[in-house]
Write a sequence for this structure.
């Protein structure tokens, strides 16, 4: 079990690393920032799924962060809950034809930086859970 949990943490850490690298791209566009935030979403999604596995609960193939936090049965602060709701907006639903045509947000550098900072903090808080 410990090995599986370590793999999930490394998997999540890789998404956080990707988000940081994209944020520091030499010529970022709003698409770059959208990908930064998608990787932030993935970081937290994987950390929450790691907690669900650790608690020996059924792992559902869902991507909704507030729902995953509920399944993980962790007590989040209002700020952490708000972050999950905000990051949920940046999950790219390209595999779902009925959702692909909904308008995407156009995040800027300031939004991406703020959410990346909060994602790092939440990830560090979730790791030992």
């Amino acid at each position: 079990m410990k090995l599986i949990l370590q793999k999930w943490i490394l998997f999540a850490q890789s998404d956080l690393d990707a988000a940081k690298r994209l944020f520091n791209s030499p010529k970022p566009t709003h698409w770059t920032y959208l990908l930064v935030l998608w990787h932030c979403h993935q970081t937290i999604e994987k950390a929450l799924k790691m907690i669900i596995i650790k608690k020996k609960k059924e792992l559902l193939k869902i991507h909704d962060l507030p729902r995953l936090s509920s399944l993980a049965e962790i007590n989040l602060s209002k700020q952490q809950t708000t972050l999950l709701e905000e990051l949920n907006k940046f999950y790219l639903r390209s595999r779902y034809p009925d959702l692909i045509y909904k308008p995407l947000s156009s995040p800027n550098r300031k939004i991406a930086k703020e959410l990346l900072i909060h994602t790092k903090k939440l990830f560090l808080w979730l790791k030992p859970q």
About this structure: The chain has one domain: 2-126. Helices lie at 2-23, 30-54, 65-72, 78-88, 109-126. The mean pLDDT is 91.
